[in-house]
Amino acid sequence: MPRYSYYCEACEQTSEIFHLIDDKPNECLLCLAKDRLVKLVSRPRININKDDSATTVRERVEGHIESARQELSQQRSELTKEDLVDDS
Predict the structure, then answer these.
(1) 3-state class of 15 per DSSP?
(2) Model pTM?
(3) Which of 6, 43, 58, 78 qualifies as a cystine partner to 37, CB 3.0-4.6 A?
(4) What integer best gives the mean pLDDT of the chain?
(5) Residue 64 located in a structural domain
């Protein structure tokens, strides 16, 4: 969930709030004032896993595709073992 910075005009404090992109918080978490929040422009935060930095994008995509194939194969084998029941 994204994190957004807001400035409260009532208490003059800045806080970070986690919410969905469509949500619009209207209450300050610090002073509980309503309709006094101003959304601030904030720098994007990008978390890079150091283990992934040595691999290329292509290698990561191929790894995800291979794991999806294995998962699909496992699901298919589980489905073929299930009994199909016709309730009609």
Answers:
(1) strand
(2) 0.48
(3) 6
(4) 84
(5) yes
